[in-house]
Amino acid sequence: MRRLLEHAGLGGQVVVESAGTAGYHTGDLPDRRSRAAARTRGIELSSRAQQFAADDWQRFDYVLCMDRQNFDDLAANAPEGAAQSKLKLLRSFDVDSPPGAGVPDPYYGGPDGFEHVLDLCEAACAGLILQIRREHGL
């Protein structure tokens, strides 16, 4: 997302963070296979894992989930109204994605699983950038 924001001229205007619904990988780098696949596209994945915190609902305009399980976990603990206005599946921003589609877990997709996930995420993020431009006049 950050690379796409830079290419769109929005790098300094949009804050992007990533967090999980569980804390068991807190402090870890992304999986080495994920970092390697991203690096072939000129993307450096260097952020450390963190867990979604209650105050993140206030800090961000969008809370995006990769899959339905994470969506449901966050929705169950969302402040009133936040789930409806902020919580979305990432792929909902990709017009070519089926309704309700999640991003598959790359760990089970064989050697090409990480490349496929990057393709899906880039398509969804391109749509998200269009939405951000519309909603925020950027």
What does this structure look like?
- By secondary structure, this protein is mostly helical.
- The protein contains six helices and two strands.
- A two-stranded parallel sheet has the order 1-2.
- The chain is globular, with a radius of gyration of 15 Å.
- The two termini are 16 Å apart.
- The model has no long low-confidence stretch (mean pLDDT 93).
Count of helical stretches: 6
Q: What's the mean pLDDT score?
A: 93
The first-level CATH class name: Alpha Beta
Strand order of the largest sheet: 1-2
Q: Radius of gyration, Cα only, in angstroms? A: 15 Å
> Based on CA inertia axes, which overall geometry fits?
globular
Number of strands: 2
CATH architecture: 3-Layer(aba) Sandwich
Provide a concise account of the structure shown.
With 138 residues, this protein is mostly helical.
What features would you highlight for this structure?
two-stranded parallel sheet, single chain, 40% helix, mainly alpha, 138 residues, Rossmann fold
